[in-house]
From TrEMBL:
Its EC number is 4.2.1.24. It comes from Planobispora siamensis. GO terms for molecular function: porphobilinogen synthase activity; zinc ion binding. Mg(2+) binds at E238. This is Delta-aminolevulinic acid dehydratase. Catalyzes an early step in the biosynthesis of tetrapyrroles. Binds two molecules of 5-aminolevulinate per subunit, each at a distinct site, and catalyzes their condensation to form porphobilinogen.
Length: 330
């Protein structure tokens, strides 16, 4: 039956797949995906991470292979995390020129450094025996300014090894300024900083702490990472401060539970904005899918589209290689 008056029919544009594809407002491209990768010193075989099916702690060799696959799929960048054989209170392995991250970065830059962006996470938690992101005071608090010196040293070591983007994730005040100054003083004026500006103290980092073997041995990170219930203005302030300190791009982390923040950040700044779909976001979808409770591939794509739509220019995701392969075909 025909309506007696002109009925609005938005469904006309949804009827066929080509029609939906043509009018889609949010598209994903492999080049805006960034793959987080783990390399572990002193292992002979890649080691699967229980809480992140499909993700591995790599050997230097298996890391190279996985990076090649990512490059082949058109993934835009990778970000490297390293697990050293020995840890100490100051995280010495982090800026050791022979440290695992420095060695692996050199491999990756020579292998794929012309096709994708090779980035390093700059923090101390993977390298400290206490698992905190900085140097501790005798009372067991993280000492902000003592930590800045260590971050500067780690960033310079990573840049010397060839890292093409430095990504400080420790949430110390002044970390971007300290790292920028150290990079410039060492001749790395051209190396950009992607600042983890807005980073919440999230339950969703659980699986990562297994992957990077960096769970705090006491306490938690709430005294430096942001409170999920904290004022929204605090997130925007962190962004402004990082830009004043010289950040070239900013990040919001986690992604899915903070899409409101991501949108506000996107509207505030004119630099590229990244969002980190963290380990717990990955684990939740994989676990539900393994139980047959959700459609894995659709859930992955829906989550990435949502993050993109909220305003991310780049997305860090453990699914980067797989998704890059699939979206080429779409
Ligand atoms: C800290 C760091 C963490 C993640 C990235 N960088 C862990 C933390 O803050 O405890 C988490 C990433 C993820 O969960 O996927 N160096």
């Amino acid at each position: 039956m025909t309506a007696q008056f002109p009925v609005a029919r938005p469904r006309r544009l949804r009827r066929t797949a080509p029609m939906r594809r043509m009018v889609a407002g949010t598209r994903l491209h492999p080049s805006e995906l960034i793959l987080p990768m783990f390399v572990k010193e002193g292992i002979g075989e890649p080691s699967p991470i229980g809480s992140m099916p499909g993700v591995f702690q790599h050997t230097r060799d298996s890391l190279r292979k996985a990076a090649h696959e990512a490059a082949e799929a058109g993934v835009g960048g990778l970000i490297l995390f390293g697990i050293p054989q020995t840890k100490d209170a100051r995280g010495s392995a982090g800026d050791d020129p022979a440290g695992i991250v420095q060695q692996a970065v050199a491999d990756l830059v020579s292998d794929v450094g012309d096709t994708m962006v090779v980035m390093t996470d700059t923090c101390l938690d993977e390298f400290t025996d206490h698992g905190h992101c900085g140097i501790l005071t005798p009372e067991g608090e993280v000492d902000n300014d003592a930590t800045l010196e260590r971050y500067a040293a780690v960033a310079v070591a990573q840049a010397r090894a060839g890292s093409q983007v430095i990504a400080p994730s420790g949430m110390m005040d002044g970390q971007v300024a300290a790292i920028r100054a150290a990079l410039d003083a060492d001749g790395f004026e051209q190396v950009p900083i992607l600042a983890y500006s807005v980073k919440y103290a999230s339950a969703l980092y659980g699986p990562f702490r297994e992957a990077a073997e960096c769970a705090p041995q006491f306490g938690d990170r709430s005294a430096y990472q942001q409170d999920p219930a904290g004022p929204v203005g605090e997130a925007l302030r962190e962004i402004r401060l990082d830009l004043q300190e010289g950040a070239d791009a900013v990040m919001v982390k986690p992604a899915m539970l903070y899409l409101d923040i991501l949108r506000q950040v996107r509207d505030l700044v004119d630099v590229p904005v990244a969002a980190y779909q963290v380990s717990g976001e990955y684990a939740m979808i994989e676990a539900a899918a393994a139980n047959g409770w959700i459609d894995r591939n659709r859930a992955i794509m829906e989550s990435l589209v949502a993050i993109r739509r909220a305003g991310a220019d780049m997305i860090l995701t453990y699914w980067a290689t797989e998704v890059a392969r699939n979206i080429w075909r779409r």
